[in-house]
Amino acid sequence: MNHYCSSFKSYEPRVLVSGGKPGRWSAAGKTVDESLCSGVQSWVYAFNGDYIGHQDITVRDLGNYDIIIMNTNPPFLRLVRLAQDRPVSIKWVSLVEGSADEYFAPQNHVRTLLGLSDLINVINRHSLPLFRMLTKSKVEYIGIPYPVEGVKKFITPIEKRNKRVFLCAQLLRRWNDYLAAKEIGIACYGYETRITRDVKRLLSGFINTGSFTWDREANIKKAKAFYHESSLDVREFTKNFEKYFTENSDSFFWMNLDSRYTWGRFVLDAAALRIPIISTASTYHSEIFFPQTTVAHAMDIERAIEIGKRLISDPDFYEDVANHPAGKMDFLKADPMKLALLGALGLS
């Protein structure tokens, strides 16, 4: 019998979340750093549920739960088979993470998986028409729980911020952020990753660059050599959220000329930290939290420069932009997100 057979008011659903990262774990014992995340794992904590990676999950596992939240990582055929073989009582939620434009190319397994879902949860409202045309299953923009209160603890007062720009994208991934920041005439910094010695990552690096390297600092050295700019500080990327927020909460503003239709974590972080961010309309959240600093697209560099110069020269404009997100982020917290997902499933 399902845990929610009579009423979710009396029972909490048993929720399993599955994504591309391997392993099995539960919400119990969450660390401070994990409390600051905003990814598929955030649903584990919102429902006090469990996580099993795609490569570890079995049909037998599914029978222990009422709701499955499945991240739509390829390969999709395995997910299709799990969805087909699940007990009929289980509600299946496909979470479309990543960028929606990755789904432009025809993919039969994707369409099949969407059709087997009780709910498709997209993380960018702009993508709703695309997915609603791909399936007759219910498609809603809900997103992912975001740790609003946890991130707010890292806010740095405006008067204590440094006159520098944080370039959000990794420096070898795109350079339009840098091109805009350079013309604004303010010091800037960004990140590059250390190379892992994991064989799969090395293979991926070979595919992308045409060569293998065991030098863990290779990307950082390459970025420094490529830009060769004294006003650009190249830093080592960190996956530690406490360090990430500590390092970036005292920047004057952020630059995020992103072309993707995705969750826009950088925009949410900037909103929670009350730091202006120049971002794109495709990220969707930018227009909600930073309408005055949202540019039309990732190549709208001239407009980004214009906005950046005004942020530096106009204190009233800066303060207005920084404070605009205040009081507008509650819908992203775990409890409202949880209720929204249950409501979309018809279970609340």
Question: How would you summarize the topology of this molecule?
Answer:
Elements: E1 15-18, E2 24-26, H1 42-47, E3 50-52, H2 59-62, E4 67-71, H3 76-85, E5 91-96, H4 108-116, E6 119-122, H5 128-134, E7 138-141, H6 148-152, E8 162-167, H7 176-184, E9 187-192, H8 199-209, H9 218-227, E10 232-236, H10 241-248, E11 251-256, H11 265-273, E12 277-280, H12 285-289, E13 294-295, H13 301-313, H14 315-323, H15 334-344
Parallel strand pairs: 1-3, 1-4, 4-5, 5-6, 6-7, 8-9, 8-11, 9-10, 11-12, 12-13
Antiparallel strand pairs: 2-3
Keywords:
six-stranded parallel beta sheet, disordered N terminus, seven-stranded mixed beta sheet, 348 residues, Rossmann fold, 2 domains, alpha/beta
Summarize the structure.
With about 350 residues, the chain is α/β, with parallel strands linked by helices. It has helices at about 40-45, 60, 75-85, 110-115, 130-135, 150, 175-185, 200-210, 220-225, 240-250, 265-275, 285-290, 300-315, 315-325, 335-345, and strands at about 15-20, 25, 50, 65-70, 90-95, 120, 140, 160-165, 185-190, 230-235, 250-255, 275-280, 295.
